[in-house]
Amino acid sequence: MSRTALIGIVLGATIALLNIGCEKSPAPGGQVQGKVTYKGAPVANARVIFSEISANDAVPQEYVALSDEMGIYNLTGGDVVNRAVKPGEYAVRIYQLVSKDGKPLPPEMDAEQLEASGMGKNALPAIYASKTKSPLKAIVKEGPNEIDFNLDGK
Prior knowledge:
Number of domains: 1
Helix content: 10-25%
Strand content: 25-35%
Largest sheet: 5 strands, mixed
CATH architecture: Sandwich
Distance between the termini: 81 Å
Order of helices and strands: HEEEEEEHEEEE
Shape: globular
CATH topology: Immunoglobulin-like
Number of helices: 2
Structural class: alpha+beta
């Protein structure tokens, strides 16, 4: 084996070993999922909004998820690289937009525009959708968080 080939092998092995120790660890934060129920039944297509309470940032973080047909939601951060949710205390709002006649709306429809136009309405008690009156709170910690919301008929 030539000296050049041997140096190439040693350099390649060294770089490979260095790369093993330099793998990026996951970004800090929490992974949040849970279930939304109303009077014991799963709530499909509910918008679950976590708004940071004690933010040191100029603009508090807000995270939004949409529940599936079983009422399960998965909250993720807005950063494409770091999908984690910032740990902290959150005020939570939940609403389920339906058509005026009470039929479910497809999740791809723009809920805000439908509500503003009067074409849709919230099927859950209004208190849960209120920025100022919702009694719902959550604390997100590092790592996995299972946060369920069992809504009643207030």
